[in-house]
Fold:
Amino acid sequence: MTLLRRSELRKLMDRREGLCASVYMPTHRTGNIEQDSIRLRNLLAKAEKDLIDNGLRAQEAKRIMSPGQKLLADRLFWQYQADGLALFMAREFFQHYRLPYSFPELSIVGERFHIKPLLTLLSGDGLFYILALSQNEVRLIQCTRDSLRLITPESIPKSLTEALEYDDPEKQIQYHTVGGGGSEKSSAIFHGHGVGIDDKKDRILRFFQKIDHGLHDLLKDEEAPLVMAGVDYLHPIYRKANRYPNLLNEGIIGNPEGMTDGQLHERAWVLIEPYFEQALTSAVDNYGELVGTGLTTDKIESAVLGAYDGRISTLFVAGGVQLWGVFDNAHREVRIHETAESGDEDLLDLSAVHTLLTGGIVYVVELERMPSSTSVAAILRY
Structure:
């Protein structure tokens, strides 16, 4: 299982090698394993049938779906779920993601992967991270507005002791923790030659630099905001070590060892919600100001052509909606169908993919929050 990052999303968007299947479904973190497995079985069966209906031989369709089928009997896989599951299958390709977002059931077959449901995680009330730091514990939590998921990358040290275990042996500094019984948290004790406040801050800085190094590898392609949680004096030290450009100026003050993941999520959302809301409100206001200038459109035909040509700077698409049709690039023609026909694709998804590939921004929002009365709206570069 791979962590979904923008680089992973780009791989899915770029892949165009014959028919492929995209499957989305909600999952349960605990219990309901049998129910989730049955749901996936039904979605895989539908995808396999659709591959065959679109001209693939039955044997080839079965081969493409085989990696997904193997998950059905993997009880360990089902015991470690998040809120949603996304699977992508094609010839010689299989990838799946457990994500902190509950997807509606969806199975789509086409010439490329269907990625629009994932865009919700990258805009609006989408994806953000909480980095909870103390000298004894490091937690990285992947969140949306309504869900959270603790992730434990190997690249990030779990404590100051682990991070600096082999550092500076010449200083002969010993470090250990002491604490009372029961639920009392341990505290750090430093002793050795020349140890003082400056040395302690230096060790914490090096600890944070190791954390930042691991985060840089993990989040190097991300644009999701990051919220730090920690006691007040740790915040400026971490900001000195930090290279991630989307670390929020405000953080959660307090010892996170005394907070659950849920409590951290609740406090982080208070900081994150205005961040997301301001970006969306600003984009919607900009659209409204440009209406009538020739630099906006709410027609799917114009949106598809504009996205393909790289003319869209900002695209709004309604979540949970599909507009089926065909884009004939050779004749610059967009044909829309009321229901999906063989060879069709979701034109909203197509517009979103090409907008992202040409450096535009995509917002997936509820239909009632669209800046126009349609399911698509775009701000054009020219």
In short: Residues 169-194 have pLDDT under 50 and may be disordered.
